[in-house]
Design a protein that fits this description.
Distance between the termini: 79 Å
Radius of gyration: 23 Å
Shape: globular
Low-confidence stretches: 12-23
Number of helices: 10
Mean pLDDT: 89
Bound molecules: zinc ion
Strand order of the largest sheet: 2-1-3-4
Number of strands: 10
Length: 312
């Protein structure tokens, strides 16, 4: 009996040691987590990927929210004030929040645009963007992967004890992005080149077009702020007919009315709803991926586009 008790005590001590060593090495208790405030759902996802258990991320914009038009609410302001560090997308995507970012920066708070780590020469500046860079970089997966560097740098600065943890998670993130890019290239190859024409309501897919070799045509231009003119409208109807395009697409964060009218006038099908400037609802599953994640958003878009345009 005594021997049994002693060996049981040894067993308990060993079990305690093992379970202690199995705990994530640098995870923090809930109350000690670093509070981070983010803007779009893509930025929220990016910070979660790299920050893991050490951060508590509060995103301001959920599914279906248009960042071009978004104005901070009073509850957002308190979230922004609570955040030890703030990450936003940048390149004027959050057009109505720029003054707020400047104010927060001058209050000595780290406010970082994740797109800052993309080399300027990799950014697109299409003529219709009137001298501005195109902000929709997340649709070229390798560029979004670069944005992780700003997050790693910012988190390590605000929480130096977690540097090793963030670095390891960043390495895993880069690897996942490589796989996602390879998956996207492979899926796009199912569609022969002449069929690779993507028509949507606003100009969010230029990087997508460059990375995966699609011609992209957006009705509304860079931002959803400007409305399409009648000339744009009839021009697009003619373009669709002339190129015998099989499907055009609506976006989750832009009203569907204009694309639906074009669909009727040009006699073309609406191929589905794409995510442009916001991801889907977390937990909404499709073909085994979560539409509320960046990976799910990318896979949903590519699958919807390729499968709709492939049809005869
Ligand atoms: Zn946009």
């Amino acid at each position: 009996m005594k021997i049994y008790q002693r060996s049981f005590a040894v067993f308990l001590a060993v079990a305690a040691l093992v379970s202690a060593s199995l705990k994530p090495l640098h995870a923090l208790a809930a109350e000690k987590k670093i509070t981070v405030t983010t803007t779009t759902s893509m930025v929220t996802d990016l910070v979660r990927q790299i920050g893991g258990d050490r951060v508590e991320v509060q995103g301001l914009m959920g599914a279906g929210v248009d960042p071009h038009l978004y104005k901070a609410t009073s509850s957002d302001l308190s979230k922004l004030q609570r955040g030890k560090i703030i990450f936003y997308s940048g390149l004027m995507l959050e057009g109505k929040m720029q003054d707020l970012f400047v104010k927060l920066t001058s209050a000595k708070r780290p406010v970082l645009a994740v797109t800052d780590s993309i080399p300027k020469k990799k950014l697109l500046k299409p003529a219709q963007f009137e001298g501005h860079f195109d902000p929709h970089v997340w649709f070229e997966v390798p560029l979004w992967s670069k944005c992780g560097e700003t997050v790693l740098k910012g988190l390590a600065q605000i929480d130096p004890a977690g540097k090793e943890y963030y670095t390891a998670r960043h390495t895993q993130f880069v690897e996942r992005m490589k796989n996602l890019h390879a998956w996207s290239l492979k899926k796009s190859e199912e569609l022969p080149n002449p069929k690779r024409i993507l028509v949507t309501s606003h100009d969010a897919y230029n990087y997508f077009g460059r990375a995966y070799d699609f011609k992209v045509v957006g009705l509304q231009g860079i931002s959803t702020v400007t409305e399409a003119s009648l000339a744009d409208f009839t021009g697009l109807v003619d373009f669709i007919k002339k190129n015998s395009i099989k499907a055009i697409f609506v976006e989750s964060s832009v009203p569907h009315t204009t694309i639906e009218r074009i669909s009727k006038d040009a006699g073309v099908k609406v191929g589905g709803e794409l995510f442009s400037d916001a991801m889907g609802t977390p937990g909404q599953m499709e073909n085994g991926y979560d539409l509320g994640t960046y990976e799910g958003m990318i896979k949903h878009n590519m699958t919807t586009i390729v499968d709709s345009l492939k049809k005869r």
